């Protein structure tokens, strides 16, 4: 990167940045804009460099990395601009977090239409990754509920786009991993809720086929469905797990104490992992113990309904701050893919068999069902999505490459927001709409200044000169 030249209005500071899995990292030059004009100044002063807007860096791989280039941190560009409490529409700057939005809207009886499994991502990051939640089978992905976004493109022009206006720009930016420009602000349609609590049940399944059937049976009637899968079992226990179903609770379903203030959630205590552990404490033995405790706990309690706060239900891992440090210095990789419903059971069974035959046992595995398909680089398509966490050790990358081939055989694809190691030719086969996306990208950014380590590794942006 060329750091020579005149004195700059926007200061840059070198910083070491990691993906959430801590497997990929790099040094970038960071800017911290606070006002819209600061983004224009960045383009004016550094428009010959490679730029990438970043949020809270919750993507697992290298989507948030721009090594030896410029990263524009959005955490100071984080204000709610307008909140229409009658119609449930909120307009915010892109750097605001899911947590801040939830705390603003819940007291007025509204909630996020889609939320990922952590409350720390920014609104801009949620759109750029087009995140999904436990309700994709009903609500689709995040972008389906965004009324419009303001995008600053490479020329400095601000383009307001939506599903109906400048729709090509909108759909290329949803799931475009920040490569179309700076997302400045957006307007989000919320959903009404009667409380800040979730009415939920846990249902045990003794094997993978039973678990999948429960998800199928519960999808129509339950707003939120997700399954934890025990990948440590073998034989008849392979794929056993717990299905969690839920919906927003009504006031009369709350305890007497909580009925008084149904939108108020008691403070949730958290612990913080203070250091990166010298070795991973998330290993085969600890995972087996954890899986046995979870399965036994839910077997004892049966499928009795429970009422829990939205924070505990949607963001269980957020109670342990910096939990990614538990994987030790080498970090971990999350392998999330989606495959069509047709043949899905056979594919998932084969993956479990391969994991059991290998030395690579997932520490955590989560299964969900997707509804309608998304466009261009957005990840969701109708089918089963499976997310597996692997602590890194030698040989893992080759093992995952073999799984890539299986996923391709079943017409599946891998989630870019989680990926840290997929090869470019595999990506091209999994995302056949890439050329259409590249054509839109070229119109918005003909010099390709918006880029990332992810885009270079996967050759998402090709030289079209």
Number of strands: 21
Rg, rounded, reads 22 Å
Task: Please give the CATH architecture of the largest domain.
Answer: 2-Layer Sandwich
Tally the structural domains: 2
Strand order of the largest sheet: 16-12-14-13-19-20-18-21
- Please, how many helices? 14
CATH class of the largest domain: Alpha Beta
Structural class of the helices, strands and pairings?
Answer: alpha+beta
CATH topology of the largest domain: Alpha-Beta Plaits
**What is the average per-residue confidence, as pLDDT, rounded to a whole number?**
91
List low-pLDDT spans: none
Biggest sheet character: 8 strands, antiparallel
- The shape is globular
Helical content band: 25-40%
- Tell me what portion of residues adopts beta-strand conformation: 15-25%
Question: First CA to last CA: what distance?
Answer: 21 Å
Please outline what is shown here.
The protein is α+β, with helices and mostly antiparallel strands and about 475 residues long. It contains 14 helices and 21 strands. The longest helix has 18 residues, at about 285-300.
Mind explaining what this structure looks like?
The chain is of the alpha+beta class. The protein has two domains: 80-193, Uridine Diphospho-n-acetylenolpyruvylglucosamine Reductase, domain 3, CATH 3.30.465; 197-423, Alpha-Beta Plaits, CATH 3.30.70.2520. It has 14 helices and 21 strands. The chain has helices at residues 36-46, 98-105, 123-129, 136-139, 167-173, 208-219, 256-259, 284-301, 310-314, 344-357, 396-409, 424-430, 434-444, 453-457; strands at residues 13-18, 25-31, 51-54, 70-73, 80-84, 89-93, 110-111, 146-152, 158-161, 182-189, 191-192, 197-205, 224-229, 241-248, 271-272, 306-309, 320-321, 332-339, 364-370, 383-391, 413-414. Strands 16-12-14-13-19-20-18-21 form an eight-stranded antiparallel β-sheet, with helices on both faces. Strand 8 (146-152) and strand 9 form a beta hairpin. The longest helix is centred in the middle third of the chain and has 18 residues, at 284-301. The radius of gyration is 22 Å and the shape is globular. The chain starts with 12 loop residues before the first strand and ends in an 8-residue tail after the last helix.
């Amino acid at each position: 990167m060329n750091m020579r030249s005149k004195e700059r209005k926007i200061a840059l500071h070198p910083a070491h940045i990691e993906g959430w899995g801590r497997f990929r990292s790099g040094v970038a030059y960071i800017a911290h804009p606070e006002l819209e004009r600061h983004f224009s100044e960045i383009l004016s002063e550094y428009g010959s460099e490679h730029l990438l807007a970043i949020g809270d860096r919750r993507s697992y791989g290298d989507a948030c990395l721009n090594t030896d280039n410029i990263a524009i941190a959005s955490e100071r560009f984080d204000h709610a601009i307008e909140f229409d409490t009658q119609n449930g529409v909120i307009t915010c700057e892109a750097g605001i977090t899911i947590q801040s939005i939830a705390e603003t809207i819940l007291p007025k009886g509204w909630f996020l239409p889609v939320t990922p499994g952590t409350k720390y991502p920014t609104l801009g990051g949620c759109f750029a990754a087009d995140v999904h939640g436990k309700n994709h089978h009903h609500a689709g992905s995040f972008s389906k509920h965004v009324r419009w976004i303001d995008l600053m493109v490479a020329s400095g022009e601000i383009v307001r786009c939506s599903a109906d206006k400048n729709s090509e720009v909108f759909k290329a930016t949803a799931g475009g991993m920040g490569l179309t420009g700076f997302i400045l602000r957006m307007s989000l349609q919320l959903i009404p809720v009667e409380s800040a609590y979730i009415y939920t049940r846990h249902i045990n399944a003794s094997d993978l086929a039973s678990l999948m059937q429960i998800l199928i049976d519960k999808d129509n009637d339950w707003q939120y469905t997700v399954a934890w899968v025990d990948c440590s079992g073998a034989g008849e226990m392979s794929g056993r797990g717990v299905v969690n179903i839920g919906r927003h609770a009504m006031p009369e379903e709350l305890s007497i104490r909580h009925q008084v203030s149904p939108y108020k959630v008691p403070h949730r205590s958290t612990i913080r992992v203070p250091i990166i552990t010298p070795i991973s404490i998330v290993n085969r033995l600890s995972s087996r113990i954890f899986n046995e405790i979870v399965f036994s706990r839910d077997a004892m309690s049966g499928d009795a309904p429970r009422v829990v706060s939205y924070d505990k239900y949607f963001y269980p891992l957020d109670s342990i701050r910096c939990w990614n440090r538990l994987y030790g210095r080498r970090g971990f990789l999350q392998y999330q893919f989606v495959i069509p419903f047709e043949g899905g059971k056979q594919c998932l069974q084969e993956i479990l068999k391969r994991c059991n035959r290998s030395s690579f046992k997932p520490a955590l595995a989560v299964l969900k069902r997707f509804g309608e398909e998304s466009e261009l680089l957005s990840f969701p398509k109708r089918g089963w999505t499976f997310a597996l966490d692997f602590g890194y050790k030698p040989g893992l990358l080759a093992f995952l490459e073999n799984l890539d081939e299986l996923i391709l055989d079943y017409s599946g694809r891998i989630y870019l927001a989680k990926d840290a190691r997929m090869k470019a030719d595999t990506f091209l086969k999994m995302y056949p709409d890439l050329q259409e996306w590249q054509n839109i990208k070229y119109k918005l950014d003909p010099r390709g200044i918006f880029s990332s380590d992810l885009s270079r590794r996967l050759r998402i942006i090709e030289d079209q000169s």
